[in-house]
Prior knowledge:
By secondary structure, the chain is mainly α.
Amino acid sequence: xxxxxxxxxxPSRIGWQLPPFYCPFERHLIHPxxxxxxxxxxAWIDSYGFYPDATExxxxxxxxxxxxxxRIIPYGEVEPMLLFTQWNYWAFATDDWQDSGAAARTASVxxxxxxxxxxVETPGCGLLPPGPHTAALDDLVARTHAMLTPxxxxxxxxxxxxxxxxxxxxxxxxxxxxxxxxxxxAAMRMAANGTRFTxxxxxxxxxIDLPPxxxxxxxxxxxxxxxGFIVSCxxxxxxxxxxxxxxxxxxxxxxxxxxxxxCTPREALPAAYAMRDRSVTLFVRLREQLGRNADEQLxxxxxxxxxxxxxxTEYHDVAPRYASPRNRNELPVEGASYDIAWRDTPxxxxxxxxxxxxxxxxxxQLDASSR
Length: 371
Protein backbone atom coordinates (compact mmCIF):
# COMPACT_ATOMS: atom_id res chain seq x y z
CA UNK A 1 0.00 0.00 0.00
CA UNK A 2 1.44 3.43 -0.89
CA UNK A 3 1.91 6.14 1.76
CA UNK A 4 -1.41 7.22 3.28
CA UNK A 5 -2.52 10.79 3.88
CA UNK A 6 -5.83 12.65 4.00
CA UNK A 7 -6.82 14.24 0.70
CA UNK A 8 -7.36 17.62 2.35
CA UNK A 9 -3.95 17.60 4.05
CA UNK A 10 -1.25 20.01 2.98
CA PRO A 11 0.85 18.83 0.01
CA SER A 12 4.26 17.29 0.56
CA ARG A 13 7.21 19.58 -0.17
CA ILE A 14 9.26 16.66 -1.53
CA GLY A 15 6.59 14.31 -2.86
CA TRP A 16 5.67 10.79 -1.78
CA GLN A 17 7.67 8.83 -4.35
CA LEU A 18 11.33 9.08 -3.36
CA PRO A 19 14.25 8.30 -5.69
CA PRO A 20 15.83 4.84 -5.36
CA PHE A 21 18.21 4.08 -2.50
CA TYR A 22 21.75 2.86 -3.13
CA CYS A 23 22.34 -0.07 -0.77
CA PRO A 24 25.11 -2.55 -1.68
CA PHE A 25 24.41 -4.64 1.43
CA GLU A 26 22.32 -7.74 2.08
CA ARG A 27 18.66 -6.78 2.47
CA HIS A 28 15.32 -8.31 3.49
CA LEU A 29 16.67 -9.82 6.72
CA ILE A 30 14.47 -10.02 9.81
CA HIS A 31 14.79 -11.94 13.07
CA PRO A 32 12.60 -15.07 13.26
CA UNK A 33 11.37 -14.00 16.70
CA UNK A 34 10.12 -10.58 15.53
CA UNK A 35 6.46 -11.31 16.36
CA UNK A 36 7.36 -12.60 19.82
CA UNK A 37 9.44 -9.49 20.50
CA UNK A 38 6.55 -7.24 19.54
CA UNK A 39 4.05 -9.14 21.67
CA UNK A 40 6.29 -9.08 24.75
CA UNK A 41 7.24 -5.43 24.30
CA UNK A 42 3.61 -4.32 23.98
CA ALA A 43 2.67 -6.31 27.08
CA TRP A 44 5.43 -4.46 28.96
CA ILE A 45 4.17 -1.09 27.70
CA ASP A 46 0.60 -1.86 28.71
CA SER A 47 1.69 -3.02 32.17
CA TYR A 48 2.88 0.55 32.87
CA GLY A 49 -0.08 2.35 31.30
CA PHE A 50 2.55 4.02 29.16
CA TYR A 51 0.14 5.98 26.95
CA PRO A 52 -2.71 8.14 28.31
CA ASP A 53 -5.38 7.01 25.82
CA ALA A 54 -6.06 4.67 22.90
CA THR A 55 -5.03 7.22 20.28
CA GLU A 56 -1.64 7.87 21.87
CA UNK A 57 -1.15 4.13 22.30
CA UNK A 58 -1.89 3.55 18.61
CA UNK A 59 0.68 6.14 17.56
CA UNK A 60 3.20 4.84 20.07
CA UNK A 61 2.88 1.32 18.70
CA UNK A 62 3.11 2.72 15.15
CA UNK A 63 6.81 3.23 15.77
CA UNK A 64 7.09 -0.57 15.36
CA UNK A 65 10.19 -0.70 17.51
CA UNK A 66 10.21 -4.50 17.51
CA UNK A 67 10.34 -4.48 13.72
CA UNK A 68 13.21 -1.97 13.83
CA UNK A 69 15.19 -4.15 16.24
CA UNK A 70 14.45 -7.32 14.28
CA ARG A 71 15.64 -5.83 10.99
CA ILE A 72 18.89 -4.31 12.23
CA ILE A 73 19.75 -7.33 14.45
CA PRO A 74 18.49 -10.25 12.38
CA TYR A 75 20.51 -12.94 14.21
CA GLY A 76 20.77 -11.65 17.80
CA GLU A 77 19.90 -13.05 21.22
CA VAL A 78 16.26 -12.44 22.10
CA GLU A 79 16.54 -11.06 25.65
CA PRO A 80 18.91 -8.18 24.84
CA MET A 81 16.81 -7.46 21.75
CA LEU A 82 13.68 -7.28 23.89
CA LEU A 83 15.27 -4.82 26.30
CA PHE A 84 16.54 -2.72 23.39
CA THR A 85 13.07 -2.77 21.82
CA GLN A 86 11.53 -1.53 25.06
CA TRP A 87 14.16 1.20 25.29
CA ASN A 88 13.20 2.26 21.77
CA TYR A 89 9.49 2.51 22.57
CA TRP A 90 10.41 4.62 25.59
CA ALA A 91 12.89 6.75 23.59
CA PHE A 92 10.38 7.41 20.78
CA ALA A 93 7.93 8.76 23.33
CA THR A 94 10.63 11.00 24.80
CA ASP A 95 11.76 12.12 21.36
CA ASP A 96 8.20 13.08 20.42
CA TRP A 97 7.91 15.08 23.64
CA GLN A 98 11.13 16.94 22.77
CA ASP A 99 9.69 17.74 19.34
CA SER A 100 6.40 19.09 20.67
CA GLY A 101 5.42 22.70 21.27
CA ALA A 102 6.48 24.39 24.48
CA ALA A 103 8.19 21.25 25.77
CA ALA A 104 10.83 21.76 23.08
CA ARG A 105 12.28 24.83 24.83
CA THR A 106 16.02 24.42 25.18
CA ALA A 107 15.94 24.76 28.94
CA SER A 108 13.35 21.97 29.25
CA VAL A 109 15.21 19.62 26.92
CA UNK A 110 18.58 20.25 28.58
CA UNK A 111 17.18 19.93 32.09
CA UNK A 112 15.28 16.73 31.35
CA UNK A 113 18.28 15.32 29.48
CA UNK A 114 20.69 15.92 32.34
CA UNK A 115 18.28 14.27 34.77
CA UNK A 116 17.84 11.34 32.39
CA UNK A 117 21.58 10.73 32.01
CA UNK A 118 22.10 10.82 35.77
CA UNK A 119 19.14 8.49 36.33
CA VAL A 120 20.68 5.92 33.98
CA GLU A 121 24.06 6.29 35.67
CA THR A 122 22.68 6.20 39.22
CA PRO A 123 19.47 4.15 39.55
CA GLY A 124 17.05 5.42 42.16
CA CYS A 125 18.47 8.95 42.28
CA GLY A 126 14.94 10.41 42.20
CA LEU A 127 15.60 13.22 39.72
CA LEU A 128 12.57 12.66 37.49
CA PRO A 129 8.91 13.23 38.45
CA PRO A 130 6.88 10.15 39.38
CA GLY A 131 4.56 8.64 36.80
CA PRO A 132 4.26 5.78 34.30
CA HIS A 133 7.07 7.10 32.10
CA THR A 134 9.53 7.31 35.00
CA ALA A 135 8.41 3.94 36.40
CA ALA A 136 9.06 2.33 33.03
CA LEU A 137 12.45 4.06 32.85
CA ASP A 138 13.40 2.79 36.31
CA ASP A 139 12.62 -0.75 35.17
CA LEU A 140 14.69 -0.32 32.01
CA VAL A 141 17.62 1.09 33.96
CA ALA A 142 17.61 -1.69 36.56
CA ARG A 143 17.52 -4.43 33.92
CA THR A 144 20.16 -2.68 31.82
CA HIS A 145 22.57 -2.49 34.76
CA ALA A 146 21.99 -6.19 35.38
CA MET A 147 22.54 -7.22 31.75
CA LEU A 148 25.45 -5.06 30.52
CA THR A 149 29.10 -5.27 31.47
CA PRO A 150 30.66 -2.10 32.95
CA UNK A 151 32.21 -1.22 29.58
CA UNK A 152 28.96 -1.82 27.68
CA UNK A 153 27.06 0.25 30.25
CA UNK A 154 29.52 3.11 29.87
CA UNK A 155 29.10 3.00 26.07
CA UNK A 156 25.33 3.01 26.45
CA UNK A 157 25.39 6.01 28.79
CA UNK A 158 27.67 7.82 26.33
CA UNK A 159 25.07 7.06 23.66
CA UNK A 160 22.29 8.59 25.76
CA UNK A 161 24.46 11.62 26.49
CA UNK A 162 25.10 12.01 22.74
CA UNK A 163 21.36 11.85 22.05
CA UNK A 164 20.53 14.40 24.76
CA UNK A 165 23.33 16.71 23.60
CA UNK A 166 22.12 16.55 20.01
CA UNK A 167 18.50 17.17 21.01
CA UNK A 168 19.49 20.20 23.09
CA UNK A 169 21.50 21.70 20.22
CA UNK A 170 18.56 21.22 17.84
CA UNK A 171 16.17 22.78 20.36
CA UNK A 172 18.48 25.77 20.81
CA UNK A 173 18.59 26.47 17.08
CA UNK A 174 14.83 26.01 16.73
CA UNK A 175 14.17 28.33 19.67
CA UNK A 176 16.26 31.02 17.97
CA UNK A 177 14.56 30.38 14.62
CA UNK A 178 17.95 29.44 13.18
CA UNK A 179 18.70 26.80 10.54
CA UNK A 180 22.23 25.45 11.05
CA UNK A 181 24.81 25.42 8.30
CA UNK A 182 25.44 22.12 6.52
CA UNK A 183 28.72 21.65 8.39
CA UNK A 184 27.10 22.38 11.77
CA UNK A 185 24.21 20.05 11.00
CA ALA A 186 26.47 17.22 9.84
CA ALA A 187 28.68 17.52 12.91
CA MET A 188 25.73 16.95 15.26
CA ARG A 189 23.52 14.60 13.25
CA MET A 190 25.00 11.29 14.38
CA ALA A 191 24.65 12.34 18.03
CA ALA A 192 21.01 13.39 17.69
CA ASN A 193 20.32 10.11 15.88
CA GLY A 194 21.49 8.04 18.87
CA THR A 195 24.20 6.19 16.95
CA ARG A 196 26.04 4.87 19.99
CA PHE A 197 22.79 4.26 21.87
CA THR A 198 21.78 1.83 19.12
CA UNK A 199 25.13 0.22 18.40
CA UNK A 200 25.74 -0.72 22.03
CA UNK A 201 22.67 -2.93 21.90
CA UNK A 202 23.58 -4.31 18.49
CA UNK A 203 26.88 -5.47 19.99
CA UNK A 204 25.27 -6.88 23.13
CA UNK A 205 22.62 -8.83 21.21
CA UNK A 206 25.15 -10.07 18.64
CA UNK A 207 27.72 -11.07 21.25
CA ILE A 208 30.30 -8.65 19.85
CA ASP A 209 32.95 -7.50 22.31
CA LEU A 210 35.56 -5.28 20.68
CA PRO A 211 38.40 -4.12 22.94
CA PRO A 212 38.43 -0.34 23.50
CA UNK A 213 41.63 0.26 21.53
CA UNK A 214 39.96 -1.28 18.47
CA UNK A 215 36.46 0.13 18.93
CA UNK A 216 37.77 3.67 19.53
CA UNK A 217 40.49 3.60 16.89
CA UNK A 218 40.11 6.36 14.31
CA UNK A 219 39.27 4.10 11.33
CA UNK A 220 36.61 2.15 13.25
CA UNK A 221 35.11 5.34 14.66
CA UNK A 222 35.06 6.89 11.18
CA UNK A 223 33.23 3.84 9.85
CA UNK A 224 30.81 3.98 12.79
CA UNK A 225 30.10 7.67 12.21
CA UNK A 226 29.65 7.10 8.48
CA UNK A 227 27.09 4.38 9.19
CA GLY A 228 25.31 6.71 11.61
CA PHE A 229 25.25 9.49 9.04
CA ILE A 230 23.86 7.22 6.31
CA VAL A 231 21.12 6.02 8.65
CA SER A 232 20.41 9.65 9.59
CA CYS A 233 20.08 10.62 5.92
CA UNK A 234 17.57 7.85 5.33
CA UNK A 235 15.66 8.88 8.43
CA UNK A 236 15.56 12.48 7.18
CA UNK A 237 14.31 11.39 3.77
CA UNK A 238 11.67 8.95 4.99
CA UNK A 239 10.48 11.01 7.97
CA UNK A 240 10.34 14.34 6.13
CA UNK A 241 6.59 14.26 5.48
CA UNK A 242 5.92 13.36 9.12
CA UNK A 243 7.42 16.62 10.37
CA UNK A 244 6.81 19.11 7.58
CA UNK A 245 4.07 20.87 9.55
CA UNK A 246 6.55 22.25 12.07
CA UNK A 247 7.38 25.94 12.32
CA UNK A 248 10.15 26.84 12.10
CA UNK A 249 11.08 24.11 9.68
CA UNK A 250 12.62 21.02 11.24
CA UNK A 251 16.36 20.52 11.26
CA UNK A 252 16.59 17.98 8.48
CA UNK A 253 19.26 17.39 5.84
CA UNK A 254 16.84 18.39 3.08
CA UNK A 255 15.85 21.66 4.75
CA UNK A 256 19.48 22.49 5.54
CA UNK A 257 20.48 21.94 1.92
CA UNK A 258 17.49 23.91 0.63
CA UNK A 259 18.46 26.85 2.83
CA UNK A 260 22.11 26.64 1.79
CA UNK A 261 21.37 26.35 -1.94
CA UNK A 262 18.44 28.77 -2.00
CA CYS A 263 16.11 26.18 -3.52
CA THR A 264 12.97 24.24 -2.61
CA PRO A 265 13.16 21.02 -0.54
CA ARG A 266 12.20 19.00 -3.62
CA GLU A 267 15.04 20.62 -5.58
CA ALA A 268 17.43 19.75 -2.73
CA LEU A 269 16.72 16.00 -2.98
CA PRO A 270 19.52 15.23 -5.50
CA ALA A 271 22.09 16.92 -3.26
CA ALA A 272 20.83 14.97 -0.23
CA TYR A 273 21.08 11.68 -2.12
CA ALA A 274 24.54 12.63 -3.39
CA MET A 275 25.79 13.20 0.17
CA ARG A 276 24.23 9.96 1.31
CA ASP A 277 25.58 7.89 -1.57
CA ARG A 278 29.11 9.28 -1.34
CA SER A 279 29.05 8.37 2.33
CA VAL A 280 27.96 4.83 1.40
CA THR A 281 30.87 4.61 -1.07
CA LEU A 282 33.29 5.73 1.64
CA PHE A 283 31.77 3.19 4.03
CA VAL A 284 32.26 0.36 1.53
CA ARG A 285 35.90 1.29 0.89
CA LEU A 286 36.80 1.73 4.55
CA ARG A 287 34.90 -1.39 5.53
CA GLU A 288 36.88 -3.42 2.96
CA GLN A 289 40.12 -1.94 4.27
CA LEU A 290 39.31 -2.83 7.88
CA GLY A 291 38.10 -6.28 6.86
CA ARG A 292 41.43 -7.34 5.34
CA ASN A 293 43.09 -8.04 8.68
CA ALA A 294 40.03 -8.16 10.93
CA ASP A 295 39.77 -10.79 13.64
CA GLU A 296 36.49 -12.58 14.26
CA GLN A 297 35.07 -9.89 16.56
CA LEU A 298 35.87 -6.95 14.28
CA UNK A 299 34.57 -8.85 11.25
CA UNK A 300 31.24 -9.36 13.02
CA UNK A 301 31.11 -5.67 13.97
CA UNK A 302 31.57 -4.69 10.32
CA UNK A 303 28.69 -6.94 9.27
CA UNK A 304 26.54 -5.57 12.08
CA UNK A 305 26.99 -2.03 10.74
CA UNK A 306 25.82 -3.21 7.31
CA UNK A 307 22.75 -4.82 8.90
CA UNK A 308 21.99 -1.56 10.67
CA UNK A 309 22.13 0.49 7.47
CA UNK A 310 20.04 -1.85 5.33
CA UNK A 311 17.60 -2.83 8.08
CA UNK A 312 16.97 0.75 9.15
CA THR A 313 16.03 1.82 5.63
CA GLU A 314 13.64 -1.10 5.22
CA TYR A 315 12.13 -0.40 8.63
CA HIS A 316 11.40 3.24 7.77
CA ASP A 317 9.80 2.13 4.51
CA VAL A 318 7.02 0.18 6.23
CA ALA A 319 6.59 1.70 9.70
CA PRO A 320 3.13 3.37 9.95
CA ARG A 321 4.78 6.23 11.89
CA TYR A 322 6.37 7.35 8.61
CA ALA A 323 4.22 5.90 5.82
CA SER A 324 0.93 7.16 7.32
CA PRO A 325 2.18 10.19 9.27
CA ARG A 326 0.24 11.64 12.15
CA ASN A 327 0.16 15.16 10.73
CA ARG A 328 -2.00 13.76 7.92
CA ASN A 329 -3.93 10.90 9.56
CA GLU A 330 -6.09 10.52 12.65
CA LEU A 331 -4.72 7.03 13.25
CA PRO A 332 -1.84 5.00 11.79
CA VAL A 333 -2.74 2.90 8.76
CA GLU A 334 -1.77 -0.76 8.72
CA GLY A 335 0.05 -1.79 5.55
CA ALA A 336 1.12 1.70 4.47
CA SER A 337 4.53 1.79 2.80
CA TYR A 338 6.72 4.08 0.76
CA ASP A 339 7.45 1.10 -1.53
CA ILE A 340 11.01 2.34 -1.95
CA ALA A 341 13.12 1.20 -4.87
CA TRP A 342 16.78 0.22 -4.81
CA ARG A 343 19.70 0.94 -7.08
CA ASP A 344 23.03 -0.87 -7.54
CA THR A 345 25.18 2.20 -8.15
CA PRO A 346 25.49 5.51 -6.27
CA UNK A 347 23.68 8.56 -7.60
CA UNK A 348 27.00 10.43 -7.25
CA UNK A 349 29.95 8.22 -8.28
CA UNK A 350 32.63 10.51 -6.81
CA UNK A 351 35.09 8.98 -4.35
CA UNK A 352 36.39 12.37 -3.21
CA UNK A 353 35.72 13.57 0.35
CA UNK A 354 32.50 15.47 0.85
CA UNK A 355 33.11 19.24 1.04
CA UNK A 356 31.99 19.20 4.67
CA UNK A 357 34.87 19.75 7.13
CA UNK A 358 33.10 17.92 9.97
CA UNK A 359 32.95 14.74 7.87
CA UNK A 360 36.14 14.96 5.80
CA UNK A 361 38.21 13.10 8.37
CA UNK A 362 36.48 9.84 7.41
CA UNK A 363 38.36 9.85 4.12
CA UNK A 364 41.66 10.46 5.92
CA GLN A 365 41.35 6.96 7.44
CA LEU A 366 41.75 5.31 4.01
CA ASP A 367 45.24 3.92 3.56
CA ALA A 368 47.18 4.37 0.34
CA SER A 369 45.91 1.16 -1.24
CA SER A 370 42.29 2.10 -0.52
CA ARG A 371 42.74 5.54 -2.01
